[in-house]
From TrEMBL:
<dbReference type="InterPro" id="IPR003593">
    <property type="entry name" value="AAA+_ATPase"/>
</dbReference>
<comment type="similarity">
    <text>Belongs to the ABC transporter superfamily.</text>
</comment>
<feature type="domain" description="ABC transporter">
    <location>
        <begin position="3"/>
        <end position="231"/>
    </location>
</feature>
<protein>
    <submittedName>
        <fullName>ABC transporter ATP-binding protein</fullName>
    </submittedName>
</protein>
<dbReference type="GO" id="GO:0005524">
    <property type="term" value="F:ATP binding"/>
</dbReference>
<dbReference type="InterPro" id="IPR017871">
    <property type="entry name" value="ABC_transporter-like_CS"/>
</dbReference>
<dbReference type="Pfam" id="PF00005">
    <property type="entry name" value="ABC_tran"/>
</dbReference>
<dbReference type="InterPro" id="IPR027417">
    <property type="entry name" value="P-loop_NTPase"/>
</dbReference>
<keyword id="KW-0547">Nucleotide-binding</keyword>
<keyword id="KW-0813">Transport</keyword>
<keyword id="KW-0067">ATP-binding</keyword>
<dbReference type="InterPro" id="IPR003439">
    <property type="entry name" value="ABC_transporter-like_ATP-bd"/>
</dbReference>
Length: 292
């Protein structure tokens, strides 16, 4: 399975939101990371087939998506950023409704609903009204919906926003288990959501994908650039004008700050092991020449 984006641009009136996306995805989990307004949802919507690019094309296994739209849709599962549920639907009603929209045969749909409810941990709740589901349950119902047609490509737009850590981990495990022999594209600005499960991470800003590589490659790029330093509380505001800070912890009268900088930020600063969150800040703050 190969999903290829060729020269994708998207304009909304005079605003150019996507500025030439060229990349190829194969089986495995890909993370799409970027700040608010980077263009992640716009790209996801184009790949999900609910929006057309202004220019450029999407190819699936070498075929232009626009020449095989129906087949393309049958091969993808899509969980949008905001899903609204009919308040008088039970979880089962919702999945039956989604299965009907996907044109699934009834017997097959019922089997899929039972199987997926089990894998997302909702079997005991399918009879309950969606309106009483927690945020995590609604997102799990959403993923079950996206998986109904056993898609080869699963596209998830900020699936874990608003979930507590327990639900986020549960969600991540479901995605990871599903991703074998499939392509999963997951957009988020929550770095740990993709750090452990993504085969490659694309960092997106201002409508372009700056880089696409593994978490380890991003992290190795900042080896030697992450520091911890002790800063007196009253100097913190001034200190953070000049450097990118990823974390601050009070230690008595002092503040222990985690700094991302190519140069040693103060005489007492000590190098520390970088993580993907540091790399994200480096790409989106330091490389742009601005402090956080
Ligand atoms: N239908 C639209 N009409 C006009 N502008 C739009 C439309 N959809 C998105 N935009 C603009 O395109 C830019 C990118 O939006 P998009 O939602 O794709 O970004 P994002 O990276 O997903 O952001 P977030 O993380 O906040 O969801 C934003 O400036 C947004 O206002």
């Amino acid at each position: 399975m190969k999903l290829c984006m060729e020269g994708i641009f998207k304009n909304f009136k005079n605003k150019e939101v996507l500025k030439g996306i060229d990349t190829t995805l194969e089986n495995g989990v890909y993370g799409l990371l970027g700040p608010n307004g980077a263009g992640k949802t716009t790209l996801i919507r184009i790949l999900a087939g609910v929006m057309e690019p202004s220019q450029g094309k999407v190819l699936i296994d070498g075929r232009d998506k626009s020449t095989c739209d129906d087949e393309y849709r049958s091969r993808i599962g899509y969980l949008p950023q905001d899903v609204s549920y009919y308040t008088d639907f039970t979880g089962r009603d919702y999945l039956r409704f989604a299965a009907a929209l996907k044109g699934l045969e009834k017997g097959y749909a019922e089997k899929q609903i039972e199987k997926l409810a089990d894998s997302v941990g909702l079997s005991d709740d399918l009879h309950r009204n969606c309106a009483v589901y927690s945020g995590g349950m609604k997102r799990r119902l959403g993923i079950a919906q996206a998986l109904l047609n056993e898609p080869e490509i699963l596209i998830l737009d900020e699936p874990t926003t608003g979930l507590d850590p327990h639900e986020r981990i549960k969600f991540r495990n479901i995605i990871s288990a599903f991703s074998k022999d499939r392509l999963v594209l997951l957009s988020t600005h929550i770095v740990p959501d993709v750090e452990s499960i993504a085969k490659e991470i694309m960092m997106m800003e201002y409508g372009t994908i700056g880089r696409k590589c593994t978490a380890e490659e991003y992290i190795s790029q900042i080896d030697g650039f992450v520091w911890t330093a002790m800063v007196p509380m009253e100097q913190l505001v001034e200190f953070q004008k000049n450097v990118v800070i990823s974390n601050v912890v009070p230690r008595g009268d002092m503040m222990e700050v985690r700094v991302i900088d190519e140069k040693k930020p103060s005489s007492d600063a000590k190098n520390t092991t970088p993580n993907l969150e540091d790399a994200y800040l480096y790409v989106f703050n330091y490389l742009k020449g601005g402090a956080a």
